[in-house]
Structure formats: structure tokens, C-alpha cells
Amino acid sequence: MSAETLNARKPLSGGNADQPRVDLSEPLDWLTAGFGTFRAAPGASLFYGVLFSLACLAVLGLARELPGFAVAFLSGLLLVGQFLAAGLYTAARQLERGNTVSIAAGVGLLLRRRVHLGLFAVVLALIMLAWLRLSALLYDLQTGAAPPSMESYLGLFHGGGDPWVVLYFTGIGFLLAVTVFCISAVAIPLIVDRDASPLAAVRASARVVARNLPAMTIWAAFIVALTGIGILTFFVAMVVLFPVLGYATWHSYRGLVERE
């Protein structure tokens, strides 16, 4: 039996639920480690960063051409980002093992994990589909028009809509973001590294977020802030920020799951 198989079957213990495991300074350590991994593999890192930035620009273009599907395109981008980051996790994993980073070998590993990765993608897609349907319903109740465009949604937040509807949109969007973060904080790295089942990965991710809520809140704030910088630079900065965040997520997985 291979070492990888043994690692994939390593159980995730329950641990002590009462004691926080991560210092508040550790999210910054993950980011620092992410920059270090970026410097160790600049070629592969920039490859994934460029792919993600191009995907962002493509979604922006599609949203302008087909504004009625803008929110659907943005939701799809979240899925694309999650699984492009999986390529970064394979690169970080290769570096940890003292190997040269190989995109081809990384793709091969992802293909071997395709069943569990695919099932996890279905979980995320269902959550985002629920958000799309609910947001469209709320918009229809507010305006009587469908399908909503991105400009229409933004109009709600510029004095063009009922404050209660704006509150609903804000609350539902926040719940969507929190849900996705909680179930995916370490889920895809865990699937990539150990070939964990989607259920085990989601449970492990929710568990480490719940047990380390203050530190994970800081980590989520870093992600939002750096993503905001990427958007403000019309995704140019995402060429570097996306791989750095991906590698930092891998290091957060190592730090969090090793405490389980």
C-alpha cells in the first residue's frame, strides 16, 4: 500500500472542541507562506493567476453582453476559482514533497481525484443555484421584472429599491458567502491531498471554522480585502493575488487539519 493511500485514509479525529487551535496571527503567517510558495514556483503560479484573471474578464464581458445572466456568470466564476485553485494545491503539495512543480502531474492528480472533486462541485453548484433562484424571486417581487441584470441589482443599492429588499439581498448574499466559506475553507485541499469524500471534507472544513472562528474571521477578511484589490485593478493584481491566496489556503489547511 502506497504512502499516498495511507495518507488519504488518515482519519480526521474530533479533537477538543472547547479549545481554540489557531492564534489570531496565523492568517498573516498563511499569507506570508503563500508568498513564499509563489516565489518558489513563479511559472506555475502565474499560469494559474493569468487563467483566473482571464476568466474574470470573460465573465465581465459576458455580463455586459447578456446582463440578464450576470449573476449566474458571477456564481459560475466562484466555481471556476475554487477549482483553478486546486491546481495551486497540487503545486504546493509537490513542493512539500521536494518535487519539481509540474502542471501536467498536477492535472493527473486532479483527474485521479475527479470523482470526489466533481461531487463537491455539485454541492457548491446546488448552493449557488439556490441563491440564484431566491435572488431572482426577490427581485421579481420588488420590480415585477425578470430576469434581473447586474445593473438592476446595483440599482437596488443606489436608492432604487425598497430598503427591506436591499436588506434581504444583503443578508442572503452574506449567508451564501459564509456558507461557502465554512464548507470549503479546507475542503478542496483535503480532497486533493487525501482523496477525502465530499462529506468528510465538508465536515472537516465546518469543524475547523467553528473551532477557530476568530482566526477564520480574520482569514476571511484577508480574502475579501485582497479580492477587492484585485477587482479594483480590473483583475490585473489577481495574476499574483489569486495564486498567493491559493497557496495561503493550502498552508491554512496544513495548519488547521494538523491540529485535528
UniProtKB/TrEMBL annotation:
Write down the InterPro entries for this protein, in alphabetical order.
DUF2189
Q: So where does this one cross the membrane?
A: 45-63, 69-89, 117-139, 165-192, 213-246
> Which UniProt keyword terms apply here?
Membrane, Transmembrane, Transmembrane helix
- Region annotation (Disordered) ranges: 1-20
Q: What Pfam families does the database record attribute to this sequence?
A: DUF2189
List the protein's name. Putative membrane protein
Q: Which organism is it from?
A: Thioalbus denitrificans
